[in-house]
Structures are given as structure tokens and as C-alpha cells.
Write a structure and sequence with these properties.
40% of the residues lie in helices and 15% in strands. The protein starts with 10 loop residues before the first helix and ends with a helix. It folds into two domains: 214 residues, Hypothetical protein, domain 2 (Endonuclease III, domain 1, Orthogonal Bundle); 123 residues, Nucleoside Triphosphate Pyrophosphohydrolase, CATH 3.90.79.10. The chain is built from 15 helices and eight strands. The N terminus is likely disordered. Strands 1, 2, 3, 4, 5, 6, 7 and 8 form an eight-stranded mixed beta sheet that branches. By secondary structure, it is an alpha+beta fold.
């Protein structure tokens, strides 16, 4: 694991890390009496989401879906509603697929063996390693971005952590020196990366249990590590949102079953930036009678590879007939504001506009 330490990793270094962890570990709900299901839920939620943001979601999710069988039987739209705000909705869809696999192939008992976990939907090497080590005491590493950053800094290693070969090398080095308390060791590394060995050249080196061993610190090259590929330039999509409301409620539209935000609900939108006049003409063209239009604030929402630059108009329309409550030509349907809050999963991209559609006008 650590070329800079004789005999890979000496017991002293392991002890230093574990003692630091036991003294400094944050109290997190998924660390209390950990079981495979709870560890799994937390690890999936924590992917690309901050710890503080996850805490309330974790509690609410487990109250609704306390075990893998409850998750396997969940209705998709209800499940997406409970995930609303966490983003990356394929994560929870894959969780349900895995729950169904566990129900059908493992009699509803959540496995803790790495080689079994890695075969489940949505579970990769890191998540399998975390579950197997924390809930199953299996001596396997859990290598994520935090661990890659720690290891490359510790070893003064300029290997590109975006390359599979680098990830494989670090995983093998860790595997070779896993202690008996593998779950604690993996969590200690996670904690060190999340609270001390921070990204962007701003680690708290004086608090680090490995400060006397770290080559990046000795060579003052911390800001240069880790080496990774530059992020791809995101595609910008301009959209004009139409917040359409009337006596029958507000208009929503369901997104296609494949692609970005698949199967979620959205505020209807037109491609490109449209003027107020163009929006009015469009609304009239599809058969509605606008009574009032107001330009509201613009917002930008950033996905991993796409940016939505959103312009928005609030439109009040005349009362519509029952036959127009569901506009099949444009996939619009009208719902009461209260229903959106409890029934329809609306992606966080539209969060800035919820205040306009979740209250009576």
C-alpha cells in the first residue's frame, strides 16, 4: 500500500490512523449499529452528495423502506418522491433493481460477501467493499476519490487517478495490508479524506495522523496531487420554462422514460431562450387563454455533463374545460399544488421555481 513506509504499512501507521479515527469520527446515523442494508443506503446516497444533506434523507428513507423487501415492493413514483432532491435518480432505480435481486435470488437476506455484492445492480467495487468490510468484516478495501487522494499524496504519487490502472494499483496495495478491523480501517480512510486530507490543495495537515509520513507534505507538492483528467466541458442547453397555472391547478409534464431525468416530472419548457411574446403565442397556439404573464428570475442548474440555463415565465390562464386538463398533444396535465408536494417527484433543477407552483395563486 505505502511504498514510503517499510514493509508496506507498519502496524504503527495502522494504529495511528485507527486511534485518530476513534477519537475524531463524526457521529453519523449510518454508523450506529451498522447493518448491510443501512450501509448500502448511506453509501448510495452519499455518492455526489454532501453528508449534511444526506442525513435527513437517510432517516426518512429508512422509516419508509426499513428493509430490502420493503424497497423491492415500492412503487416507483413514490420511491422517486422519497429520493427527490438527492438527484442522480438512476441511483435509486438501481437500488430497487438490486433489492428485487436480493428478494428473488437471496431470499430477501442482504448479502455481505464482496463477490456476491459486486453482482448486484448499481453496486461497484467501492460500494461492495464498504458493505462487505463494515457489515461483513471482510478484509477488502473500499477505494473512492477520498482514498485515492490520500494515497497519492501520502506516496507523492503522480499517477493519474482517473486511470483504471492507478485505481487497481492502489486497491491491490490496500488489500495487501488490510487489518482485521477492515470496516473501521476503511471508514477511517473515508473520514480522513472527508475532514482532513481535503481536495483543492487545502488539507489540514497538522491534524493528520500520517503527517510525519506523507511525502506530499515533505516535498510541499500537496497542491499538485492528485493528478486526474480535466473535467469535460459541459454542454449548455438554454430552456424557457412556462409555469402555467389556472383554476384547475398547475401544469406538469412527464419526461421520457430514457435519458436525462428519465420518467421524472418537469415544468413544461421550450428549447432555447424565448421572448414574452413568443411564449404567449405558443400558449395560445396550444389552446389556452392567458390572462396574465410575468417574467420571473433566471436560474442555472448544473448536471454532470450538461448545464440548463433557464429563463422562466409565470402565466395565469383562463379556466379550462375538463377535456383540457390532460393535454395529450403536449403531454401537459394539471394538478393541484398540494399534490406536487406529496405525489409528483420534481427534480432539484426546478427547486428555485417550486415557490411559484406549490402555492395557490
Amino acid at each position: 500500500m505505502l511504498p514510503c513506509i517499510e514493509e508496506k504499512m507498519r502496524q504503527k501507521e495502522i494504529d495511528n490512523l485507527l486511534n485518530w479515527y476513534y477519537a475524531n469520527a463524526r457521529k453519523l446515523p449510518w454508523r450506529e449499529n451498522p447493518n448491510a442494508y443501512g450501509v448500502w443506503v448511506s453509501e448510495i446516497m452519499l455518492q455526489q452528495t454532501r453528508v449534511e444533506a444526506v442525513k435527513p434523507y437517510y432517516k426518512r428513507f429508512l422509516e419508509k423502506y426499513p428493509d430490502v423487501l420493503a424497497l423491492a415492493e415500492a412503487k416507483e413514483e413514490e420511491l422517486l418522491k422519497y429520493w427527490e432532491g438527492l438527484g442522480y435518480y438512476n441511483r435509486v432505480r438501481n437500488m430497487q433493481k438490486a433489492a428485487i435481486q436480493i428478494r428473488d435470488m437471496h431470499k430477501g437476506i442482504f448479502p455481505t460477501e464482496y463477490e456476491v455484492l459486486i453482482e448486484l445492480a448499481g453496486i461497484g467495487p467501492y460500494t461492495a467493499g464498504a458493505i462487505a468490510s463494515i457489515a461483513g468484516d471482510e478484509k477488502v478495501p473500499a477505494v473512492d476519490g477520498n482514498v485515492l487522494r490520500i494515497m497519492t499524496r501520502l506516496n507523492g504519487d503522480y499517477s493519474n487517478i482517473s486511470e483504471p490502472a492507478t485505481i487497481k494499483k492502489i486497491r491491490e496495495e490496500l488489500f495487501a495490508c488490510m487489518p482485521e478491523c477492515a470496516g473501521d480501517f476503511n471508514q477511517a480512510l473515508m473520514e480522513l479524506g472527508a475532514t482532513v486530507c481535503l481536495p483543492n490543495g487545502e488539507p489540514k495537515c497538522e491534524e493528520c495522523p500520517w503527517k510525519s509520513t506523507c511525502k506530499a507534505k515533505k516535498r510541499t507538492i500537496i497542491s499538485e496531487l492528485p493528478v486526474k483528467n480535466k473535467p469535460q466541458k459541459r454542454k449548455v442547453e438554454e430552456r424557457t420554462l412556462i409555469l402555467l397555472s389556472g383554476s384547475n391547478g398547475v401544469a406538469l409534464r412527464k419526461r421520457p422514460v430514457k435519458g436525462l431525468l428519465a420518467g421524472m416530472y418537469e415544468i413544461p419548457a421550450l428549447e432555447g431562450y424565448r421572448s414574452e411574446q413568443e411564449v404567449l403565442e405558443y400558449v395560445k397556439e396550444i389552446g389556452y387563454h392567458p390572462l396574465h404573464v410575468k417574467k420571473i428570475e433566471d436560474h442555472v442548474h448544473i448536471f454532470s455533463h450538461i448545464e440548463w440555463h433557464m429563463r422562466a415565465f409565470l402565466l395565469r390562464i383562463d379556466e379550462i374545460s375538463d377535456s383540457m386538463k390532460t393535454d395529450t398533444a403536449n403531454d401537459f396535465f394539471f394538478v393541484e399544488p398540494e399534490e406536487i408536494m406529496v405525489k409528483y417527484p420534481l427534480p432539484s433543477a426546478f427547486a428555485p421555481y417550486r415557490k411559484y407552483i406549490e402555492t395557490k395563486k
